[in-house]
Amino acid sequence: MAGTEGGKLVVGARNDGRGVSHRWAETLIPTAREAPADAETPSHIWLVRGGYIRKVAAGVYDYLPLAWRVLQKISAIIREEMDGAGSRELFMPVFVPMEFYNETRRHEAYGDLLFTVKDRKGNVAALGPTHEETITEMVRGSITSYKQLPLGLYQIQTKFRDEARPRAGLLRCREFIMKDAYSFHLEVEGVGGLNEHYDAMYRAYSNTFRRCGLDYSAVEAESGPIGGSASHEFMVNCESGEDTILKCPASGYAANVEKCEIGERPRGTFQEPATGELTEVHTPNLPGIEEVGKFMKVKPDRMLKTIVFKTGDPVSGTMWSRDGRAIPWIIATVRGDHDVNEGKVKALTGYSVEVADPAAAKAAGFAIGYVSPRAVKTVPGTLLLVDNDASLGGFWATGADKPDHHVKHFNWRRDVGEKLDDPSYVKVADIRNAMAGDPSPRAAGATLVAARGIEVGHIFKLGTKYSDAMGLSVLDDKQQKRSVIMGCYGIGVSRTMAACVEMSHDANGIIWPAAIAPYHVLITLMKPEDVKQQEVAWDLAKQLNDAGVDVLIDDRDERPGVKFKDADIVGIPVRLTIGDKALEQGGVEFKMRKDTQGKGEVVSLADVVVRCIGALNG
Hints:
Layout: E1 3-5, E2 8-10, E3 21-23, H1 42-49, E4 53-57, E5 60-63, H2 65-84, E6 88-89, E7 95-97, H3 98-104, H4 106-110, E8 115-118, E9 124-127, H5 132-140, E10 151-160, E11 175-185, H6 194-211, E12 216-220, E13 230-237, E14 243-247, E15 254-256, E16 279-282, H7 289-296, E17 304-314, E18 321-322, E19 325-326, E20 329-335, H8 342-349, E21 351-355, H9 358-364, H10 375-378, E22 382-387, E23 397-399, E24 405-408, H11 412-416, E25 426-429, E26 449-463, H12 465-470, E27 473-475, E28 481-483, E29 485-492, H13 493-503, E30 505-506, E31 509-510, E32 521-525, H14 531-546, E33 551-554, H15 560-570, E34 574-578, H16 580-584, E35 587-592, E36 601-604, H17 608-617
Parallel strand pairs: 3-33, 6-10, 20-22, 22-25, 32-33, 32-34
Antiparallel strand pairs: 1-2, 4-5, 7-9, 8-9, 10-11, 11-29, 12-13, 13-26, 14-15, 14-26, 16-24, 17-20, 17-21, 18-19, 23-24, 26-29, 27-28, 30-31, 34-35, 35-36
Helix pairs in contact: 1-13, 2-6, 2-13
């Protein structure tokens, strides 16, 4: 197979061998005229219609021959880049003994997403969603000295997550193919440190997605259930993407919604006068801000939304406390048309946090669903965080701190009082999700713009989260025991295939980048039984194979219209059609899949191989 560079086929340079030629009639490619009823996204529709995947159960798919060739090509690029970044391939079992999770408690973070199985002896194991615990246990039993570090290891393997609502084909499924890599270090900085390897993996990921021919963005991100101090997501840019990316056009800064910072905004003083007497309104059976606002005739941007969080273990050395005691409850208030950002709450307070269990919060004194900022005065051990926007003056409506009631004309100074002046009780800060139009955090005067994307890769600086939990340590040059510092780096291989289709398709089917297309050239025979057409097809295939080009020969006994329709759905970059009229002119019909207008052009037999290679590299 030819090498790839920048999403192009590279013939001659990095050519690892001859291409292959396969007959369509000998390959399982069950194309379909209609999409399945549950297919809504372009990748789900076209991968099913193109005969790439077939549903086995909810969120579980067969990868048919065309899909497997795409996956193998993506994997080959990944392997080259991982090896070049100093990581070595291995293979770990799907089963993860529950004892490993008992050490890290990560099964609690995954919750119902974790598939578990029980053997005949009653032992419980998980089907690995990722393999941090398994790799940590492996390295713990394999190294003892700092001289064995740094170390980078990776695998490409099937993973499992018990999604409650699998959807979008391969984009949100329960069984998927993933590359997961892990690195181990004694230091964060310097040669052999975590930061050096992280930067190498960042470059390897950028190279991987560029070589796959993908339009992608690298954005700052939250670490989620994996944990860690810093992370980046790699997102395929496409309008149908399920994730929102916010970018600063002036500085190039980009982050997902959960991570994106907001630049300086006007700050209120809590001194604005009240707009009227505090008025209580009965609001029964109204489940959300929109419904409450319609009933009260108040727009969401003039309402306050207050979320109750329960604090957990400290996540930083600077933990918010009151008189040296931990704070058990945090209430976070934002405008009704905004959303509280849990990551920002965690970073600001120094605690791990989770949305409070309703029963526990009610027992503490919170009227869940009707909480207002005034709860900081009535529920002991409560810290109030106020987003900058919510601190501005004017009319406000909010919960009444009792079930089925809200209030109008809430006023910060009158209704919260002296607690506003005590920073151990109230803090004003950026605690909401960023939005398009917000000030850029990196360029004064610039504003954030929104784009859509699909996450295909994620890299994390884990630190000692797993090594501390599982006792992974080594002796340093002073014979002192040191916890090993870790990083982890994932790529969704099957998800990358689907994301590419989301990015690159039209009304007729898939348009593959040459680098990861199942075949580079499709040779279509108008008369597959004709000896002359067969000879020309196989002679061209041999010449293309010698140049490292993969060829699929459509030798089916089907009508031309069926073959052309299938060619568009399957999406192979170049189509050569061999028919009597073109042969009479000494050539074949040449057409690029991405060229949707008109018919192809006749190219002489002497020039067609060079033309194909040029088009694939173009």
